[in-house]
Amino acid sequence: MENTIGTNKLAPLKMVNFIAGLLIDLPSRSKVVSVEVASDTYLVTVASANGGVSLHHLSAWDVSRSMRGDPNALATLRADLGRHAMAV
Is residue 64 part of a domain? Predict the structure, then answer.
C-alpha cells in the first residue's frame, strides 16, 4: 500500500480567493485557512470566529462550474459551506 499522506497540492490563489468570497455571503465570520487539491476534491479548511476549525470536501466539478457562472453549482457550494456556518 502506497503512503499518500501529504501528497495534496495547494490550490491556486484564484481558487482560494473564489472560495473565500463565498464565505462573505454567509452569516458567520469564518475564513479560509487553506485549500488543497486532492484528486477530484478541494479540501477546504475553514476557521470560525469562535476558534473552531472545520474541513470541507468540495467537488472540483462544482467549483469549476461555479467559477464559470453556473447558478446550480454555486448554490451547492454555498449550501455546503453554509452547513458549517449553522453548525459552529
Answer: yes
Task: Judge whether 65 lies within some domain.
Answer: yes
The domain tally of the chain equals 1
pTM of the model: 0.77
Show the cell assigned to 6. Answer: 501529504
Query: Which domain does 87 fall in, by range?
Result: 33-88
The model's pLDDT over 34-72, given as tens digits with 9 standing for 90+, comes to 999 988 899 999 888 788 888 888 988 999 999 999 999
E strands within the chain? Answer: 9-10, 31-38, 41-47, 53-59
- Domain assignment of residue 3, yes or no: no
Cα–Cα distances (Å) from 79 to 18, 62, 69, 82, 87, in that order, read 15, 12, 16, 5, 12
